[in-house]
Amino acid sequence: MIIKSAKYLISSPDFEKCPKPDMPEYAFIGRSNVGKSSLINMLCNNEKLAKTSSAPGKTQMINHFIINHEWYLVDLPGYGFAKVSLSSRRRWEQMIENYLRKRENLTMVFVLIDARHTPQKIDLEFLNQLDKWQVPFSLVFTKADKETQAIVAKNVKLFLNTMRKTWQFLPRHFVTSAAKKMGKDKILALIGEMNSGE
Ligand SMILES: Nc1nc2c(ncn2[C@@H]2O[C@H](COP(=O)(O)OP(=O)(O)OP(=O)(O)O)[C@@H](O)[C@H]2O)c(=O)[nH]1
Ligand SMILES: [Mg+2]
């Protein structure tokens, strides 16, 4: 899969206002600050496409980008941001749940996990939700450049082993670094395969 064009399309406050579901769609989700927007920029080779920030809570809406005029990438707000009121957290949860359960062209969700940490309850619980809603997902371990390869490998293994205790099948997973542009080709290859119905 080669990205020839990547353009920002629209930011939607809820599922109802998203663009017409007429093309395959891939969404990126995960904890606040895990690197969702940075990963989208890395995949598209454009540092300025999705807005990133060192302060968590940057992305607030459902952001659509149109790629090669034939599929969508979606940047979502992060979960688990502590400095947010209960009412805005509820609003966020409702927005995301509606989007994930009702968006009919949603082909795959990429759930981002910080490769620097051992398995976090909040991520494992989010995966259980996706399972309950029957949303297909892959895992993307991020910020691999911030730790040694050995630590990253250990954390990835721990995460998958933790999943193994309750999951019958393990999802596909990718190890990435937006800073080092690592993991891009494999993710784009999967999207290419899915777009062509393989
Ligand atoms: N070293 C390193 N830093 C990264 C990487 N990916 C993201 N970052 C940094 O992590 C911070 C958060 O990145 P974002 O892409 O804005 O994270 P996000 O998940 O979109 O955050 P929210 O929109 O707030 O939920 C920024 O300072 C990025 O530069 C990476 O692979 N390596
Ligand atoms: Mg973001």
What are the SSEs and their pairings?
Elements (H helix, E strand, L loop, with lengths): L5 E7 L12 E6 L5 H9 L17 E6 L3 E5 L10 H17 L3 E9 L6 H13 L3 E6 L6 H16 L8 E3 L8 H12 L3
Parallel strand pairs: 2-4, 2-5, 5-6, 6-7
Antiparallel strand pairs: 1-3, 3-4
The protein binds guanosine-5'-triphosphate (GTP) and magnesium ion.
Guanosine-5'-triphosphate binds next to α1.
Looking at this protein, list some descriptive labels.
198 residues, 21% strand, Rossmann fold, binds magnesium ion
Which structural class do the helices and strands define? alpha/beta
Task: Give the helix tally.
Answer: 5
Which cofactor or ligand species appear?
Answer: guanosine-5'-triphosphate, magnesium ion
The assembly state of the depicted protein chains is: single chain
* CATH top level class name: Alpha Beta
Q: Widest sheet: strand order?
A: 1-3-4-2-5-6-7
CATH superfamily: P-loop containing nucleotide triphosphate hydrolases
Order of H and E elements: EEHEEHEHEHEH
Shape: globular
**In percent, how much strand structure appears in the residues?**
15-25%
Give the uncertain stretches in residue-range form.
Answer: none
Return the average pLDDT rounded to an integer: 94
Number of strands: 7
Gyration radius from CA atoms, angstroms: 16 Å
Q: Percent range for helical residues?
A: 25-40%
Gross CATH architecture: 3-Layer(aba) Sandwich
Written description of the protein model:
- 34% of the residues lie in helices and 21% in strands.
- It has one domain (6-195): Rossmann fold, CATH 3.40.50.300.
- It has five helices and seven strands; from the N terminus they run ββαββαβαβαβα.
- By secondary structure, the chain is α/β, with parallel strands linked by helices.
- The mean pLDDT is 94.
- The protein starts with 5 loop residues before the first strand and ends with a helix.
- It has a seven-stranded mixed sheet with strand order 1-3-4-2-5-6-7, with helices on both faces.
- The longest helix is centred in the middle third of the chain and has 17 residues, at 86-102.
- Bound molecules: guanosine-5'-triphosphate and magnesium ion (MG).
- Residues 32-38, 52-54, 56-59, 77-78, 142-143, 145-146, 177-179 line the site of guanosine-5'-triphosphate (GTP).
